[in-house]
Amino acid sequence: MPHLQTNLIAPQSSSRAVVTGRDKAFVYLIQPSGRVPAIPRDEAKAWLEIALNDDSFNAQIDAIIAAVTLCAENWTGLTFINQVYLTFRDFFTPNFQLKRAPIFTVNTIEYTDTDKIVQTVPDTDYGVTRDVYPFVFLQPESSWPSDFREVPEVVEINFTAGFGAATTDIPADIRLALLNHIASAFVNKGDCDAGECVPCGAKSVYDKHRVIDLAITHTEG
Q1: What is the pTM for the complete model shown?
Q2: Nearest CA-CA partner of 20 in 207, 220, 208, 158
């Protein structure tokens, strides 16, 4: 079976991920949001031909769903179900990139001013490009605040990434690939390395949707 260079491990309630940009590494914090699984347990059980009233495999199936979802999200560079993230910048730049996809919405951009008061940038002052990894840019005749404190991570961007809040918002081919991946992990548990338990059909779908970040084409400091 194809090999994916990623560990098949269950996600934690929160995590700290570092994504390397052109000049520095930016931190992305996952905020607890109680999001639903990418594949509902009952749907996975039906796919595995396990009776819905048979609860003996529930914990195992839940763990596999979480692990397979994490594996697929890591490989594709996508967030399947809406997830809230925080990322930080040391200062304002003309444009800054959000290394999560697809972007559902930018919730807030906040900064601490020179009086140590948290301020919110009006959402009418900026927009978001349609790049796979989009850039937040200034609207014409707007300007970023200049009264921010000169301390690390003074600018905080709160945004949501994902196809939507429901499992049905995920593209159908990705959902089918996840089901096939779940079935393979359930049947072959313990018989292969984590990244090798990926059916060819599932991997081809993951590859189709995979975000390849070749270069930054906008200005970001």
Answers
A1: 0.78
A2: 220
